[in-house]
Each structure stands twice: as C-alpha cells, then as structure tokens.
Here is the input.
Amino acid sequence: MDGDPAIETAGLTRVYRKRWRGGEIRAVDSVTLTVARGTSFGLLGPNGAGKTTFVKMLLGIVRPTAGSAKLLGMDCRRPEARLSVGYLPENHRLPSYWTGAGLLDFAGALSGMDPRSRQRRIAELLELVGLSEWADVRLARYSKGMLQRLGLAQALMHGPALLLLDEPTDGVDPVGRQQIRGILRELEQRGVTVFLNSHLLSEVELSCREVAIMHRGRIVLAGRVKDLTAGQGYRMTAAQVSERLFDELRRRAATAAMQDGLAEFLFPSREELNRAVDLVRAHGGWLESVNRTTSTLEEVFMRTVRSEAAGQN
Amino acid sequence: MRGVQATALLRDAVREAAARWVFWGFYGLSTALILFFLFLLRIDVIEGARATVTLFGETSPRALPVTRLVRQFQGGVASFLYVAGMGLALFASAGLMASTFEAGRIEWLLSKPVSRAGILLCRYAGNVLVVALNVCYLVFGVWLILGWKTGVWDAGFLAAAATTIFMFMVLLSVVTLAATLTGSSALATMVAFALMVLSPILAQHRLMVKLLDSEFWRDVWRALYYLLPKVYEVGRINMLLIRDRAVESWMPVWSSALFGVAVLAAAVIAFSRRDY
Here is the structure.
C-alpha cells in the first residue's frame, strides 16, 4: 500500500440530472488523475469547475456516476480508506457547542485515536495553529480565521498521510495565511501529501509543486508548477538603438517597446535573442539587460481557461 | 465501527442536546414534577388502608383506598409523560436529528472513517439516551416519593418508563427518516405528531370496519391500522401495567417495534445513498 499513489482516479464522473426540466450537468467529466505520495498538489479552476465535487467523490460524500477512485491504494467508497486522510471542507460548520479542545478530541476519537494520544495531540496542534489560549472557549466565539485554523488542526489530528484542503485560507488574514503555508510546507517535508483545492492562484503557486487546472468538469492542464510557468521567452533591453535597428528588431520580437531611450524586446526563443544581441552590437547599441522570462500561474491559468472556453464555443 | 468512534458520536449527541438546553429543559420539567410530589402533595395514610389527600393546602373530602390513590397518581404522571412528555421529546429531537445534515457539517462528519449507518444510528441512540435518562429520572423519582409517602411500592409504574421510551424510539425512527430525506426538523416533527394523532382514530378499526360499506376502504383501514405504530394502544397497555391488570394482547407492541425497525432501516438506506 505504501507504494500506491496518494490519489488515483480513473474516468471519475459525476452527472447531475435536472429533475423537472430534464437534461443533465456533467459536474465532473471522466477525470483520470494520479497524485504521487509526498507531493503538494493544487487543483485549480474557476467557480463551478467541479473541484469540490471531485474532492467530495474522493471522500465518499458524493457518489460517482462512473469511474473509480482510490485513496492511498484503497477504494474511496470504504470508510477505512479515510483512516489516514485529513479533510478541511469549504464553508465548514464545525459544531459550535464544542470548545476548541473538545472538537479536536471529538475529531480524534472519530478517527479511532485512543484518549491518551488525543490529549497529547490536542496540546500540540492548538500550539501549532496558535489557539492554545482558546482551547476551552466554545467555537461560537471564534472568528472566521480562528475557525479555519482550528479546521486545519482537526484535519491534522490523527497524523494523516493525505491532507485534502478545500479553500484552506478562506477568511484568514495575511499573517494566518503565511502560518498555514508554513505548516503545509513542513507537512510536505515530512512526507504528507497535501491536496489543495483553491481558486486563489497565488496561494497555490506558493504552496504547491504540482497543479492541475479543471474547467467544466475536466482536467485541461496538469504538471509541475515550475514547468508550467517557465520557458516563456527572453527579455532584452538596450540603449542607443536607432530607429532603423528598432524596426528591424521589432520584426523579430514577440513584443517591442521604446521608453525613456531604452528599447525593450521580448523574444520567443534563445536563437532569436542571440541574433538580436549580434545586431545591437553590430549597430553600436548598448545592451542593458538580458533575462529569461517566466509567466505566473495566473497567466497560465487564464490562457488555459480562455483557450478551453474558445474551443468549446 | 469501533467503540471509541461510537462513544464519540453518542457524546456529541448528548453534548448538543445539553448545549441546546433540550437536556436541561427535560431535566427541569422532571424535577418540577418530582418536587411537586415531594412538597405539595401530602398523603395521610390511616392503618395502611385509607387516606386523605392534601394538595396546595386543600384536603380532599373523599377517602380512597391508598393503593388505588397511588395508582391514580401514577397513571396521571404516566399519561402526562406518554403524551405531553413524548411530544416535547419528539419536538426537541427533530431539531437534533436535522442538525446532523446541515451543509458544512455533514461533509465533515462523512469525511471521517465512520460508516454512514454508524453515524445515523449513533445519532439516533444519542437522542434516545437523552430522553431515556430523563424519563427514568422522572418515573423513578415519582415512584420513590410515592412509595416513601404511602408505603405502596408498585413496580407496575416502572413499566411506564419502558413503554414511554419504547414508543419514543418508534416515533424517533420516523423523525430520523423524515430528517434524512428532507433535512427539515419541522416536517419531521409534523410526521411524528400526525402518527400520534392518527393512532386513536385507527384504533377504532373494529367499529370502522362495520361502518364502512366499501371492502376496499375496509382493507385500507385495516392495513393502516396494522402497519402504523399503535401509540394509543401501547398507551393503554401502559395503564394496564400500572393498574396491575392483565394485558390481553401484545400485538400493538411487537407490530410497532417492527414498524420502527423497518423505518429506521429505511432511514439508514436513504442516508447511505444520498449525496451531500
């Protein structure tokens, strides 16, 4: 079982049928995805893309219409598959009649932990999420950010091998976000698989090594964040560029601009860049800077979603 | 499901009942009744056979055999408990059952390594536990006070606790099914109350079979009578036990039990098939 991927789905599909008007909505459409153990994986997508339904199917909360899913090598429909899984739902409503410590105790007991381990773990986790002083206060008095941090603590209570987090930084202030990112990084270093479901691209870019972009129920792009955002082109800035040279370079560049006596070009390939450098030198220009450009995850996301939308329309 | 998980779910149900003041509401009502018998009711027993009763300082002019008097009090408490107490218990429990299915909470519960059947049955059992503790407290408390004041230790009254808890369990299964299907505590309460109201009407089946001229409607009436829980008749059995009289037929008990088991099984199946 240790050699199995953390998450493995094959043709996972969920179709909702409209009861009165007829027709159907394919919330998740034949998703085949493998998430290796020990990685941090982000599932991105616009609202209504099917991300939450996908996660709910993994946890047996929603039944798939077709396909199968395994968590840590076990059929996700079996309760035992969730023994080593921690989950923080989106818009959760943790029972407000529990205190912080009481809720963690309840969560630990539901995961089968014995009382002694629970007591030890509660103190550790409350310390980790900065809620030690709130241990005996009822959740009804907690702020949104505190509830979110406690939600993360309850998901970690039984030391899961796989952590599924649905919008974990929702309602959390910048300091709290940084704290959560730190916790997630530490977990990844300890070999825990972190599966982050979010529409906050910067959050995913900062926290995850791998991502998949979901659009209209399908995975339209997947890969390592480093690969997806790298290798977009080369930027060159130069001074003393004559009008004739600028026109010549503009024909070869993807983009070109002149500002305050500095010409800036973006070349799609290394070859084009080197030819441009030769031309600038041959015409008596001065190179100011040359660097490789990367695109942000947001740019990758927008490109992917737009091209998918254009392709479907 | 392991013991630690079942205990946690039971503890959660009791904790929520306490937080919503349901548990304390029942406890307060039971205590008020016990205090009423303890301080306001004075029974003077003469030679162990006859008595006068003083209530709120007023003395009853009629002298009664003490056993009959005690049984009358016990019957009154049992009737109150069986009708009003059970109605209140169902009303409160419907909220506790429906809250389990609240969005944001049910997803969290279902993500734990516990079977859906386990979650639902423990929630059901937790509600039964809350009500059973209070029913036993009231019945045993009143039984002790009446026994201490009169020397009549009639064990028949203790059966009132068993019959009340039993019928509550049957009707709670209906509340559980309705809450599972709709998530509405109001509808769940209405369905349970409707069964309570229907029961004495359906119990007149012998008379109705004579009055109805269509064989089809006679069959419908009989089917409903045998199918649905016999709240009214189990209540009558309750009174017979208190009065130490023989019970002619236990059919209302076992047929109601069958109904409860079937409805609870239906609730478990419905819950297992639902998406949240």
